[in-house]
Known about the structure:
With 438 residues, the chain is α/β, with parallel strands linked by helices. The protein contains 17 helices and ten strands. The protein has helices at 16-32, 64-73, 75-87, 96-107, 131-141, 162-183, 189-211, 222-235, 239-258, 282-288, 298-302, 331-342, 346-349, 354-367, 382-385, 388-397, 417-430; strands at residues 39-43, 59-63, 121-126, 147-151, 268-272, 292-297, 307-309, 315-317, 372-378, 402-407. Strands 2-1-3-4 form a four-stranded parallel β-sheet, sandwiched between helices. Strand 7 and strand 8 (315-317) form a beta hairpin. The longest helix has 23 residues, at 189-211. The termini are close together. Iron/sulfur cluster (SF4) binds at residues 65, 95, 97-98, 128, 130-131, 381-384.
Amino acid sequence: MAERKGKYPTEPLKCWEKAKKIREDYYRNYATAHERGGLRWAGGAWSFDAIPAGLGEDVYPLTSEPYGASCAYNKPFSLRCLEATEKAGYARDLCAYMRNYWGSILLNEYVFGGPFPKPDFLWQDHICCSHAKWYQVVSELEGGIPHFCIDVAVGPETEINENKIEYIVGQMHDGIEFLERVTGRKYRDDLLIKAVKNHFRSTSTWAKVCELNKNIPAPLDEKTMYSLYVLGTLHKSSQVVADFYEELYKEVKDRVERGIAAIPNERCRVMSDTQPPWGFLGVFRYLEKFGCVSIGSLYTFGLIGAWEVDENGEWVHRKTPMERGVTINDRDSALRALAEWELHKPEWQHFYSPQLKSEMMIRIARQWKLNGVMLHYNRGCEGLSLGIAENRLALLKAGFPVMIFEGNMGDEREFDMTRTMSRIDAFMETLGMKKEFD
Length: 438
Ligand code: SF4
């Protein structure tokens, strides 16, 4: 029989509307930048967005992956984008975000309304095989937009050395010369330093928020977290995002202290992996019927969050360079601190070995006290799905039950909701969970 009263109190997040507004302002400000004499640039969610910030306070980015996800969420629009890309001759097994994004350009339609707002320059970095190529095509489709890409694929954090940092910092310096040349603007190091410090604050604080989900009951569920982590993928170096995450942290900490839960009947905890099928987030609400909460994932925690292992072996938020007493007072020290910081990004590590990803996942499964893991065999993202079957084996060996489901984060033609629900039913049965809650 369906249970009505939850064992934990729940309440909506107070800062929810603010998060929505930041996202709306971001996409509107980008589209209307030229009306105010400002600049527009496009690049990946992992690009060093603090660097173009030195061009002035009227410079607005459009990051590609969240934009692709917004297209995917709008299923009819996404289908038209994907078909336009295929018609133009691009293969259907390429990155699904990239195909949505290219389709939006080919159709000349911005998913938020109006024509696609053409960027003034492209600013990207490259670790996934799609990154530089994504913007090479964007440049070609838009008639030759200036494009700069930084190669960050220098190896995992365990092998960082001075030469590798120097290699990235050298490209960043070249990139600033590129930015000055293509925009005709004089670069301001004071704005760079401010943006770099905001970047550290945003990424460290997001990890602090995720750490709070170690608590039982979890104060946040993964579906809610998607609407919050996205701000870091949009503009992690902006003051508004860094300040918002600090406000969010205070609110989530308060939820923990008052015992406010994400779902009222938590009795089972899982995590997912890689991007979800964005058009089908109802999967997470379905879990709640079993009293199951997805507390996040390596993806949700580590795409933007900055982490480190403390002296007790716990995965905790990474202390900012400012907290460590690192001096950041000129262009070179800012770029160096930024390069070094980003080389520790969790989601960059497993491009080099599935074992590195398995270690992080097992650490989360233990420290966030999970009952099981749901792995999305995501055909839309070869970057983050790389080695995922190896991760499954490692998780099983570590004693965690694993459910897999196939799908695609940005191509609804490759996701079967009914079949996925059936798999969840079977998985929940193996975990001893019944569908008992409304
Ligand atoms: S990591 Fe995934 S989403 Fe990002 S560019 Fe590569 S394939 Fe696309």
